[in-house]
Design a protein that fits this description.
It is built from six helices and five strands, in the order ααββββααβαα. By secondary structure, the chain is α+β, with helices and mostly antiparallel strands. Strands 1-2-3-4-5 form a five-stranded mixed sheet, covered by helices on one side. Strand 1 and strand 2 (60-66) form a beta hairpin.
């Protein structure tokens, strides 16, 4: 998706009345899909991946950590999954460690082949990967996020703590 399409999607998912999860959020279905993602990444990388799921007081559902020793560059890969619209973020080491996957690749912390493996798994499982650069841009939607961050971003809205 283009940046314009992704921003349209983010704005369409934004509901100021529901900061933590969307109206018709299906916790069980989200958990099943997330479990499938964990299994897929474990198979693709040939390792056990640590995961956190069903994060409370957050619009983020969970994270999958692909261990550093399973990656070409020796940096772990983190996949963050939102409770909204199957949105995901892929980052090297941790969210915010690099200004996106392009920078991580340029600095030798993320292998493009490893990134392609993760992106392929996400796409095949129906997730939408949103670049960290876009998620870190200033939030301009209708939800009141000033209480949660001095400078709200799209990441604050769809992956951050909401209480």
């Amino acid at each position: 998706m283009s940046e314009t399409q992704l921003l349209t999607l983010l704005r369409g998912l934004d509901d100021p009345e529901r900061l933590e999860r969307p109206l018709h959020y299906d916790r069980a279905a989200t958990g099943l899909r997330f479990g499938g993602l964990v299994r897929r990444l474990e198979a693709d990388f040939g390792v056990t991946c640590e995961s956190m799921r069903d994060i409370g007081d957050s619009s983020e559902y969970g994270r999958v950590h692909i261990p550093a020793d399973a990656t070409v560059c020796g940096t772990r890969i983190v996949v963050c999954v939102s409770k909204f619209g199957l949105l995901t973020e892929v980052c090297a080491d941790n969210p915010g460690a690099f200004l996106g996957t392009d920078e991580a690749c340029e600095e030798g912390a993320l292998d493009p082949g490893d990134l392609a493996t993760v992106d392929r798994a996400l796409a095949e499982l129906g997730y939408v990967s949103v670049p960290e650069e876009l998620l870190e841009s200033d939030y301009d939607g209708p939800s009141r996020l000033e209480h949660f961050s001095a400078r709200p971003s799209w990441w604050t809205r769809f992956f951050g703590t909401v209480w």
